[in-house]
Amino acid sequence: MSQTAAPKTTASASSPGHIESAIKDWSSDQRAFKDVPWGKAMMWLFLLSDTFIFSIFLISYMTVRMSTKVAWPNPSEVFALEIGGTQFPLLLIAIMTFILISSSGTMAMAVKFGYSKNRKITAILMLVTALFGLSFVGMQAFEWTKLIHEGVRPWANPFGAPQFGSIFFMITGFHGFHVSIGVIFLFIVARKVWRGDYDTGKRGFFTSRPGNYEHVEMMGLYWHFVDLVWVFIFAFFYLW
Amino acid sequence: MEKDQPHGQEHPISIYFWIWGLLFVLSAFSYLVDILGFESYTRWTLILLFMLAKAGLIVSIFMHMAWEKTAIIYAILLPTAFIFVFVILMALEAENTLLSRQIFFSSPL
């Protein structure tokens, strides 16, 4: 694993021969993703498989919603929030969307500061990301509680097609689970950054291998993916 | 393991603030689609438009796909494209199910 070739950093995708470069990489010996750290490549492949899982959920939602004879509940009304006697449609969902986007912003900056070895700012930005994530999960718990009190169940609900409940709990539950796992790992990686594990070469608890600041970027990939999935859930489940 | 300096993704911080702001604006627009009460095809087109714009910004800038090697871009994005085949198949299937239900279950289910 001794690569002496100078890493290509500038816009490899937009250079003229990018098809040639892809064919060259794929037909080369030993590894297809030259210059891509293996951990990052594996994170991308994991996210690809996760994309398929969420796609299957959203596609089953589409199938169920298209094929039911009973009217689908209007999400704009179901998820409305009453403040001072006025109904605000989708208010909580909009706040959750903005919070998740903000957490993505702080995470992207954490990756940048990680590579410039600014430990303190990186750890703080990751903690802010984790707190945004926690507040997101908290609001989701509030939303679940509200809907359960209103009588929404996986098999029935007072608003319309019974499939609404099962789809809602399955999709938002699985997404919320992803956010929760992300928050746990954000705390773990932030702690490692704060302690300077990636500078001293301290070995990891599970892997017994020294890590480096690429871990922050891998963590970032996962977190942005969670935000990405929410973009699709927001569009298809809440707005459609 | 050699002590290699990770030649990571380092871009000016302003780009992240720009994308952050753009995502806020696009989210506000998609929220407005609901508030202003667009219906049917206008609604669906706008929702898809803002959704794809947001997804594109997140993947290309926040996840640094724009700066990755072509080999990995294709390895990730090409399989994703096949999801649309599945979407079309299941949409046809759903139409078929709905038709059967309308023919054979005349009383509301």
How does this model look, in words?
The complex is a heterodimer of chains A (240) and B (109). Chain A has 240 residues and is mostly helical. Helix content of chain A is 68%, strand content 2%. A two-stranded antiparallel ribbon of chain A has the order 1-2. In chain A, a hairpin with a 2-residue loop joins strand 1 (81-83) and strand 2. The radius of gyration of chain A is 21 Å and the shape is globular. With 109 residues, chain B is mainly alpha-helical. Chain B has two domains: 1-67; 68-109. In chain B, helix 1 runs antiparallel to helix 2. Chain B is flat, with a radius of gyration of 21 Å. At the A-B interface, helix 1, helix 2, helix 4 and helix 8 of A face helix 1, helix 2, helix 3 and helix 4 of B.
- The number of distinct structural domains of chain B comes to 2
- Please report the two chains with the greatest interface, counting residues with C-beta closer than 8 angstroms to the partner's C-beta: A-B, 76 and 64 residues
What is the radius of gyration of chain B?
Answer: 21 Å
Strand-residue proportion of chain A: under 5%
Give the distance, in angstroms, between the N- and C-terminal Cα atoms of chain B.
64 Å
Q: Give the SSE string of chain B.
A: HHHH
Q: Roughly what fraction of the amino acids of chain B lie in strands?
A: under 5%
The main pleated sheet of chain B reads as: none
Poorly predicted regions of chain A are 1-13
Annotation field: number of helices of chain A: 8
The count of β-strands of chain A is: 2
The gyration radius over C-alpha positions of chain A equals: 21 Å
Overall, the morphology of chain B is flat
Approximately how much helix is present in the residues of chain A?
55-70%
Would you tell me the structural class of the helices and strands of chain B?
mainly alpha
Q: Which class do the helix and strand fractions of chain A yield? A: mainly alpha
Largest sheet of chain A: 2 strands, antiparallel
